[in-house]
Amino acid sequence: MLHFQDIDIIDKEKLDYYLTNLVTQSCNYAFANLFSWRHKYHTGWCIYNNCLIIKFLIDSKNKIGYLQPIGNNIDSDIINIMVEDAASYNQPLRLYSMSKEFTDIYKQTSIGNNSYIYQNRDLEDYLYTTESLRTLSGKSLQTKRNQINQFKRLYKNSSYRLLNNTDKEEVENLMTLWNKEKVIHGYEINEESDMIRQSLMHFDTLDIFGIILYIDERAVAFSFGSYLNKKIFCVHAEKANTQYIGTYSYINQLLASHLPKDIELINREEDMGIMGLRKSKLSYYPEFLSNNYYSISKSDETEIWKLWKTCFGDSDEFISSYLINYSKNDNRILNYQGNDLAAMIHLHIFKNQDIDKIAYLYGLATSPQYRNKGFAYDVIKKSLLKLWRKDVKIVYAIQENKDFNAWSDKFDFTPYNKSPLYFRSPEQFDFGTGIIEQDFGMYRIMHALDYLNIYTAKHPSTNAEFYLSDSLFTENNGTYSISNGIVEYKPIQTTSHIMHPQDIAKQFPPDNVELEFVM
Fold this sequence. Notes:
Elements: E1 5-6, H1 12-19, H2 31-36, H3 38-41, E2 44-48, E3 51-57, E4 64-67, H4 76-87, E5 94-98, H5 100-107, H6 110-113, E6 116-118, E7 126-129, H7 130-135, H8 142-154, E8 158-162, H9 168-181, H10 189-201, E9 209-215, E10 218-227, E11 232-240, H11 247-258, E12 265-267, H12 275-282, E13 288-289, E14 293-296, H13 300-312, H14 316-326, E15 332-337, E16 340-351, E17 358-366, H15 375-389, E18 394-397, H16 406-409, E19 414-416, E20 441-445, H17 448-458, E21 464-468, E22 478-483, E23 486-490, E24 498-499, H18 501-507, E25 516-517
Parallel strand pairs: 4-5, 11-12, 17-18, 21-24
Antiparallel strand pairs: 1-2, 2-3, 3-4, 5-14, 6-14, 7-12, 7-13, 8-9, 9-10, 10-11, 15-16, 16-17, 16-25, 18-20, 19-20, 21-22, 22-23
Helix pairs in contact: 9-10, 13-14
């Protein structure tokens, strides 16, 4: 068994013995990065057979990831013990930021040979030559030079100096201002603030190097990072007050200009798939992007990944984002035929101000060789039964395959035509088709009495009496009398007016309100 310990500042010398000798361009292997983000990622480390193994929580959730093992004796025994460690948490082995050299070795092992290995553009680091960021020469960087010249012309009282461990208050004030100006989807600003705070608190030990820029003796920008090795410097944080023209361009150039002469490359980290950040990083014309690989050992996740790609054709970046952040053992229904994943569907719970449990069925897919054999029907039925047990009041779905009629014919779903369905997570992950205008879906009332009580409370003038006949959820069957804002239920038929779930959905439709993601 592997025995991990939390990463601590006193571990720097021991870990640097491995980290600084690793041939890599990834900022994920800089000790300052590992240490300062430790609260977010719960980073741990251990030494096994003279190899360094680093483990972390992916995006601070429950999924475990590992960096590639670091040492001179990487073999199948190391990989197998890492697989065992992941399995102790009932998870596959997820390897992050693998170099091509290690990936080639990994593929030769039985575990690696059966893993899903991919690259993720959203996580590729941008590397620039120090010379290009220092001189900003050439026509392509003319705009940056113009911005810096404009800064110098407008702000005569500007100055700068090297950052030091006494600048914590000024940096935090600038971060507070920046936080008010910026809202970045899925990006935990307070966690980045903690990273910056940790870096400044241990400034000297982490060997942090940075620049702080002033106008009229007021801090308007800062940039700092650490040395990945003798040739590469990693920029870990850079913030500027954009009320002042050219602050980002100038602080960027200042940092590059003051680095030691033997630093050949500057790693400005990844863009996380944020298009504005990608545009900004590309505008400096990187020399290249880091060539990192990622891997998931054979598991439900790899089979879902392959089926998803077959049926929907989404990118590895999209599938990775969904599976890592939103797919869990308890919210997916999978139908295997032997070793083949024949069909799948995912269940997600939302809520609004009126209803505490609203379900959304997502990613229904059937492998081509198993279509028209009832497997999609099977996973839908199992998902609805599971949602019934979870006390869900109403369930939605977006039907991408318009020829699949079981939604309405077998499960009593009704078209929802009020407006497009809008299901997104707090990180703005879109559970729709990606084209909001096409996200008209359908819905089914689940627990009828609970739903009608909620509906009647909002529409107290409602009057109706009917017998509900629900072939899927017979617990709903009975007579419902609605008047004066009250719903009375009897488990027997006392009226000849018979309604079915689709009739209920049409006569008592849900309101179009904002939804909040739960799980």
